[in-house]
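FIELD: query
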Amino acid sequence: MSPLTIGHAGRQYPEVRNIIGCVEGASYHLCRDYYSLLRRFEPLLGETPSSDRFFDQQFQFRDFGLNRVDCLHLFNGINYSRTPWVTTYETLIPRFRHVLKSHTSDSEEVRSCPKTLRALSLLASEPCKALIALSDSARQIQGRFLEHFPEFKETIEAKTVVLHPPQKPLVDRLAELAFPHESNGKVTFMLVGHQFFSKGGREVFDALAEIRRKSEVEVRLFIVSRLKPDSYASATSDEDVVRWKALIEENKGWIEYHEVLPHADVLEKMRNCDVGLLPSYAETYGYSVLEFQACGRPVITTDIRAFPEINSNEHGWLIPVNKREIGGEAYFRSDQDREALSVAIKKGLLNVFEDILANPDQIRRKGARALDHILSDHGPEQFGQSLEALYRRV
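FIELD: result
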């Protein structure tokens, strides 16, 4: 078979993780288009980057067929040209702002939007060869959304596949895993992610601080995060960032904090911790879970969204929280919901931390199983073959 030329619309982390270089022998071409030019110049003409129109343009692609590629692979995007294409999505598609706001609460507003209807017609059209859901959670949410559009539902769902991101092992699979607590007696946990608050950072700190007061076992915490405020899930502000940076500084005796590190250094920190952390309020996937597991580190997560598909109590720990039956999204829209969610996360963390400190030998057992999970379920070669099969439909 002749080698493929695959077009992509960006070089951000999602494209690097799920598209670029994933098929052996294929060549990859960065494709510029009408909407990328609009996003570059419209702010100079007075368009505000915070507008719905500007937000939606990042998920629209139109190159009028000028990029000569065999297949275009977008991430969360819709192709308005005739080039054959596939798209990978993390929650639902089209990822327009009004869809994200209203798809569970105001079906009539979504149903009556001409832009949404046009995007769905393109997803159902012949040039769109496949929709790739990052998780079964995303597939479920998309399916629920498509119930508003029975004229497109069957056609789009017939093209939809679930393909979890690839992950290569980050430790020698044949060498014995090394865990810091086995040599120094200190159990080291690690949290990675700029959205510190929505990733359960406050609950992690509170639970570990409480554990330190009543346990004889020393604990340490690595944090790599810009501590960005989050108005979506945790309802935090710049004032929260200032307060928590000061609090972390006051506890630097047991917390090692980095605002940002090169990715290679983050992975090295992962290899030098005992347990990974991602007890999130909201998460479209959770790439750092795969990276911890690829280092042979078990991870503590909530049981929302895709987490039960990539984590388990066999090779990590799942904290149960109240969530939607379809898609597994946690409830966090109101102050009451956020408070209940925070309480559940902290309670779950306390239970897991106490269990780990009482039975630290499980870290090794679960870490080895986590690495086995990566090798069996996220192999890059298997992922590339699945992706190539979709491209070859062209």
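FIELD: remark
The two ends are 13 Å apart (CA to CA).
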